[in-house]
Design goal:
elongated; 4 helices; homodimer; alpha+beta; 6-stranded antiparallel beta sheet; disordered N terminus; HotDog_dom_sf (chains A, B); 165 residues; Thiol Ester Dehydrase, Chain A
Chain lengths: 165, 165
């Protein structure tokens, strides 16, 4: 089970929508695990038709003889699905707003995979000008059901303290 | 006009689908300009509902009092639309397959903007192991109708020589 790898100190995906996270709730090394998303060829082709109409994303036939060999999701589809999972697994109170980010797709996302996002906070840098804010760096690995990464995504985001009441 | 900035040596978007590009057709400094894409709030909300359901991407009301102030597209939506434009404006014969990439969103994409992608080849590194291939680095700026960047995206992609016949 992937859950045995120690991704246990994030919020439970089922309850996370009710527990928005503020800066005080975060620490370096903190981990989050998302709920799963199952991807099929219908989703892959629908996304590709709208945003990335290249033969290897549109049909099995079109993928033959290409770098991919068989139908593969657009990397942007993997990225968008990852965002969808992150919105629930890392519910920062003021939202997830990426300022700067890096992406890699170590292997293709294929129909039939079950994806899940494993996130870890790698750095928290308090703002000099805004005492209620810090830049939080997070590394997000989107893994298939075998635990292999299809996407590695690092991002820096502004996160705010709980408002004084 | 944005076209006066010198983005003239890429293929004409209208004819590009018929002129796939091979490694021999590319050089450092080569530029490409995409056809325009007009984005409206309907597109923004539809994408957000599926992939990035955060209040500032879902409605004007939800965006009030947030970092964005008014409705803004998900950065992943800007990225996906950029890909859609690139597929036509930089028609590499064996496809656009990103190995490694960096993204930044200098300002939000808003309803009513007309986007266009301006691309430039910044490096071509021949492969040592595969004589018919090189890694091509490309910088892609997605700009609004005022010429201001909403996304800067740099990517390295494998590009192949024209097959011997």
């Amino acid at each position: 089970m992937l859950r045995s790898e120690g991704y246990t100190d994030g919020p439970n995906p089922d309850s996370s929508m009710h527990n928005p996270l503020y800066l005080e709730d975060l620490h370096v090394g903190q981990r989050f695990e998302s709920a799963p998303h199952h991807i099929d060829s219908e989703q892959i082709v629908a996304f590709a038709k709208e945003f990335d109409p290249q033969p290897f994303h549109l049909s099995e036939e079109g993928a033959r003889g290409t770098l991919f060999g068989s139908l593969a999701a657009s990397g942007w589809h993997t990225a968008a699905l990852t965002m969808r999972m992150l919105v629930e697994s890392t519910p920062f109170a003021d939202g997830l707003v990426g300022a700067q980010l890096e992406l890699a797709w170590p292997k293709p996302t294929r129909p039939g995979m079950t994806l899940r996002v494993f996130s870890e906070i790698t750095d928290i840098k308090p703002s000099r000008s805004k005492p209620n804010m810090a830049m939080v760096a997070m590394r997000n690995e989107t893994r298939d059901q075998e635990g292999e990464a299809v996407q590695v995504f690092t991002v820096k985001m502004p996160v705010f303290k709980r408002p004084q009441t």
